[in-house]
Amino acid sequence: MTPLKTTxxxxxxxLISAPSLRAQSSKIAVVDFERAVVESTEGKKSSxxxxxxxxxxxxDVEKKQKELEDQQKKLQNGARTLxxxxxxxxxxxxxxxxxxxxxxxxxxxxxxxxxxxxxxxxIAERATAILNAMADEQGYTVVIDxxxxxxxxxxxxxxxxxxxxxxxxxxxxTPQEPAKTEAPKQPTTAAPxxxxxxxxxxxxxxPAPTAPKQ
Length: 214
Known about the structure:
By secondary structure, the protein is mainly alpha-helical. The chain is built from 5 helices and 2 strands.
């Protein structure tokens, strides 16, 4: 599942033209617009917020699904021992829970779609403006978005991929949060304590080597 594609694809234009350069030879760029938005600093924060909300919604749906399954098993196991009245009550409860589960699932999908749009739209709009400026600056006649599900691109030269550059420019254009300042602490006199052993820093993973550009 790629929950970010629908919103991003609706915002970004697949082709960006530069009319002033039509008389010159074509200069094509390729961009994975979805990756640029999601892997930007602000995009990563938004993705974390969305995933947190997604997990919470999934937990609610799974809980109601489990309750429904428990009632269904109770009806199946008591098919020969329960009275008709009890079985009828169980069936009505199962029908009610089934309807409620469907409604909860539909509401969760709508809420998540709205949240996704709220989190990603500002980033995608900023990225679109930056990409337009890049196209004008670099003289691109066409920019192709490879993250679109119907891009139909079979191959492209990696040298034409501007995704990493777009990510850098998105991060540079993102307003920085003001640094938090702490009130100065009053000096205190304390008894000397034995020195604590130094804990080594956790090693960071080494990035995987990238294929050389064509």
